[in-house]
Fold:
Amino acid sequence: MNEEVTGAEGPTQPDAGSERRIGVYICHCGGNISDYVDVDKVIDGIRDDGDVVVSRTAMFACSDATQQDIAADIGANGLDGLVVASCSPKLHTYTFRGVASRAGLNPYEYTQVNIREQCSWVHTDDHDGATEKATDLVRAGIADRPEGSCEFG
Structure:
């Protein structure tokens, strides 16, 4: 997993009204995404966005190893929101809700951003446009994680 951890001060529990602590993971999908979307540029584009604490790319976000890494990041960095940019929510919503749940995070604090079908597959002739659109969709996913999340567990 390519990694960039920002602001990792260790595990914390957010107080009411405090800033969110969001982890963002961008999947290569074995080239289905990264052949058309510059995933490193997407990470660079969102890395410093307000509440992003962890930002990483993964060859296959759905793999067992990456799922374990995400769960470890949730605990180690006190994440209270999770955004995974990969393929269709129809395919992996329950996969990543399960990761969140196993790590003690409310599974509904997870947002799936579909950059495979909505960016790489439809913009095969425009890599810059696909990358820009993916960055915008990931930012929308980050914004979807509102403050004042629910306790879980």
User: Anything to note?
Assistant: Helices lie at 39-46, 64-77, 89-102, 115-120, 127-143. The two ends are 28 Å apart (CA to CA). The chain is about 40% helix and 20% strand.
